[in-house]
Design a protein that fits this description.
alpha+beta, Glutaredoxin, Glutathione S-transferase Yfyf (Class Pi), Chain A, domain 2, 2 domains, 9 helices, 4 strands, globular, binds glutathione
Length: 219
Amino acid sequence: MKLIIGNKRYSSWSLRPWLLLKQAGIPFREKLVWIHLPGTVAEIRRYSPGGKVPALIDGRVRVWESLAICEYVAEKYPHKGLWPKDPVARAEARSVCNEMHAGFQGLRSNLPCHFINRYRGFRVPAEARPDIERIREIWTGARRRWGKGGPFLYGGFSVADAMYAPVVFRYLAYGVKLDPVSAGYARTIETLPAMREWLSQAARETRRIAAYERPELLP
Ligand SMILES: N[C@@H](CCC(=O)N[C@@H](CS)C(=O)NCC(=O)O)C(=O)O
């Protein structure tokens, strides 16, 4: 399988299937396409009709859209248990994944994803606060009801953790204060060996996209 991704410094959508594949120990090759350049869409469209990353190529199969890729991987490797076993937990996990995929615009537009920078003095704008509150409810609720069997939202690592992983780095970048349960969960994600691998590769990237950088907030 080949996963087409964008810049590791910024591309939250790319991280999701990448992390899922890594956590599941599924071998794959990756092809990085630099996003936000004049030729980016044409280059991505060589692999994915949607013109956006991520995309997955598996022989004759092409899958695009992060959540569809995660679903494809979970279906192809059922023994990896990438969705919770319990049907009630699984239904909830699917719902919160769709909430992430389709929503949280206030958070996404006001706190652009940055995997490396750690800002100081950022005030969370009002439009982002309901999203942050809803994510707190999702994380603490899942951990309380389903998290007994492991450190992740539904116990063992699932598609839900892959979908919410980039939120952890938005919070770290912008210094969003978290309740103890959410902070513990964020730490679990941040310290995953696969996450460390992504972060060290992101730190070595030299390309910068001005729209995603906030130099005035750097210490
Ligand atoms: N809904 C899509 C969103 C994908 C997306 O927006 N990808 C961005 C990068 S994070 C992209 O490909 N941008 C192309 C560009 O900026 O040139 C998904 O879930 O995969």
